[in-house]
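Bench notes, afternoon.
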Amino acid sequence: MTSARLLGCNASTSAHTRLLDDRRFRTLLSNEDWGRLPLATWRRFSKRVADGESVVYVGVVDEVSFSDIGWWFAQAARLIGGPLPTGRDTGVPMIVTVTEDGTTGGQTWTRICARKRGFPHVIHSAKRFAGPTGLEEYVGFGVSMALRTAVEDQTLTFRSACYGLQLGRLWIPLPRWFTPGDLTVTHRDLGNGAFRFTLDVIHPRYGALIHQSATFREAVS
């Protein structure tokens, strides 16, 4: 669901917001793959706001499912910032705020997923355009994953390549048995300003652990 300019359906663009050309995601793909993206997706991933400014995504959670092991793993991951869904509620709002980070040249993210009962689940993370694949996501306590970017059936796809731990300037790969397995995030354009975000975590031994999908719509500005 990475995007540098995607406004929620109830959000509005400030008159003072500056939109800049953004080639950060473009450089992660071949010319052929980039050309297969729908025009709406191409536009979302080709623009960004100025450093320090934010945009908001507003959507609704459509599906959530966990295996028994996946649910317990998601709860345990709260110790490093809760980077995975932790509840089974559907039909609840999901809000994402993306802020351009001028220090690293990346983005800081805050994801808020409402619950039907209790407080919402909040995830903080940071995306950096660096590392072995050109894109990394940090989720807390120095834990990060490198992401490979691809286009599959006109859907922009991000897949985990490896996980690591940042200690000062040292990056230490995490052993596969210490990770949740293969993580995949997709951004699929639905037309008429809408798109679907999905998150899937599949373990090589235990199979599908977690699935979540949400539908978002761009603001009319």
